[in-house]
Design a protein that fits this description.
The chain is an alpha+beta fold. The chain is built from four helices and twelve strands. 15% of the residues lie in helices and 44% in strands.
Length: 191
């Protein structure tokens, strides 16, 4: 229309008052698995998923908070290093270095290389600029890189997030014929 519906009409008020956000039961610990699997973990409630095409980081993100003000996140990306071969500790250190250069990291408190369920991993703790603590676990599973994060003020209020994380096989639906008419090819693919 030609009128100013946002400022002068009830349309915007009606629309905005009709918006409902999903409420997650933040104190109910839920075993979560993504639709195509890859991992399972206990989150407080159902996490918010941010796909790699919806952020500028080329990674998948799952984020949740609880009623104590703790925040939890899992980042997963696939990296292919064809131009060099290094120790796993080198790749883990690069991932940690990238994370610790974030503007919200105040101080590195600890770091330790571990073997986690047969996978190379690095545990780290950092002081957030707001005074809270960030606990991170970086895990390599071939070309799959996982980062588990928990931000908290009191460790005793955390859910069993780190302990419950398990890497699982990816599962996809049946492969179907897909046709790309612009490039002129057909492929059989589950996605």
């Amino acid at each position: 229309g030609l009128d100013d519906y946002i400022l002068g009409g009830d349309e915007a008020k009606k629309f905005m008052s009709s918006v409902r956000f999903r409420q997650s039961a933040k104190d109910q610990v839920t075993l979560y698995e993504p639709p195509h699997k890859g991992f399972s973990v206990k989150f407080p409630g159902t996490p918010t998923y941010v796909s790699e095409v919806r952020n500028d980081k080329s990674r998948h993100e799952w984020i949740a908070t609880d009623s104590h003000g703790n925040a939890y996140a899992i980042f997963r990306t696939n990296l292919h290093h064809y131009d060099y071969i290094e120790e796993d500790t080198f790749d883990l250190s690069l991932v940690e270095e990238s994370f610790t250069h974030s503007s919200f990291i105040g101080k590195k408190l600890s770091r330790k290389f571990i073997e986690w369920k047969g996978y190379p991993a690095l545990d780290g703790e950092y002081r957030h600029n707001d005074g809270s603590t960030l606990r991170a676990r970086y895990i390599l599973q071939g070309n799959n890189y996982y980062v588990l994060l928990a931000k908290y003020k009191k460790a005793e209020t955390l859910t069993p997030f780190f302990e419950s994380f398990t890497i699982t096989p990816f599962q996809y639906g049946d492969a179907k014929n897909r046709v790309d008419s612009s490039m002129g090819f057909t492929v059989k693919s589950p996605v």
